[in-house]
Amino acid sequence: MTVQAYRPISRVEFIPGWVVEDLLLEIGPGVNPQFRGPLVEYFDLMSSGEMRSRYDAIGEDSSRVPETIHYVSRRGNFDVVPDTRFATVASCHNIEHHPCLVRHLRDVSRVLKPGGAYVLLIPDHRYCFDRCYPASTIADVVGAWTERRTTHEPRKVIRQRLSYMHNDFTRHWAGDHGEPFGLSLADALSGVDGDARDHIEIHAWQFTPETFAEIIEGLHDVGLTDLHVEMVGDTPPASQEFCAVLRKDG
After folding, report:
1. In Å, how far are 17, 36, 108 from 14, measured between CA atoms?
2. What are phi and psi of 241, to 5 degrees?
3. What are the strands of the beta sheet with 86-92, ordered from one edge?
4. Does domain 11-248 have CATH number 3.40.50.150?
5. Are 12 and 225 in contact (CB under 8 A)?
């Protein structure tokens, strides 16, 4: 099965073009929320105060942290969010972190109204530090669902700690991928059976626009999600991310 991607579309074109006319939930706004306004609410792992303290401690400007994080869940559990409240859910470089993609899609669907949209900015693994890893497959995704995975697989934690590429997308586009680098084996194995598997920086999935569209449509075809592909943009040249819109069945 092949799903045709749309034309390349950048974040600066895509986000301002999305008109917020009803409640929108942004997942993981951090220090750089994509949406603001009276109809926007936020979901994150930390409260606004905790987030500001975190960014201040590492010397980053915390002034753009939202004043209020409306829904806080330490492990990203959507149980704190009411059912069918939102017309739109949005996330930026978030979906690739969830240990079980099917569960995440179902969480998003539950809080969306019928016909609602999931708006995404997603890293293209070919142009970031995931360059040396293969693209995820629908077999990988369904396997995580059948295992009811709630934490990252130890092998993925170890893999990311042991070997990753540089994160300069302009160099990747120029064909300068460099060599994989990472921690020592001893450091990579540290805590892998405990807290490391909950680590929010781990990428559980690696996508391109084409493989992401194929995975979502495959999951929809077999009834594992009621979100279908409305649009997936190609990754613009000299960029690291692509845009997508999933639509909940009405």
Report:
1. 5, 15, 20
2. -140, 160
3. 71-72, 40-44, 24-27, 86-92, 112-123, 241-248, 227-232
4. yes
5. no
Model confidence over 182-231: pLDDT tens digits?
999 998 888 787 655 556 688 999 999 999 999 999 999 999 999 999 99
In tens, the pLDDT along 20-31 reads: 999 999 999 999
Tokens for 76, please give them: 């990203």
Neighbouring C-alpha atoms within 13 Å toward the C-beta of 29: 27
Per DSSP, the residues of 49-73 read HHHHHHHHHTT---TTS-S--SEE-
Output the six-digit token pair for 231. Answer: 């649009």
The pLDDT tens digits along the chain (250 residues) read 344 557 899 999 999 989 999 999 999 999 999 999 999 999 999 999 999 999 999 999 999 999 999 999 988 889 999 999 999 999 999 999 999 999 999 999 999 999 999 999 999 999 999 999 999 999 999 999 999 999 888 888 899 989 989 999 999 999 999 999 999 999 888 878 765 555 668 899 999 999 999 999 999 999 999 999 999 999 999 999 999 999 999 8
Q: What are φ and ψ of residue 127, in 5° steps?
A: -125, 25
Q: How far apart are CA 247 and CA 89, in angstroms?
A: 10
- For residue 156 the two structure tokens come to 């993925």
Q: E-assigned strands of the chain?
A: 24-27, 40-44, 71-72, 86-92, 112-123, 227-232, 241-248
Is-contact 29 51, C-beta < 8 A?
Answer: no
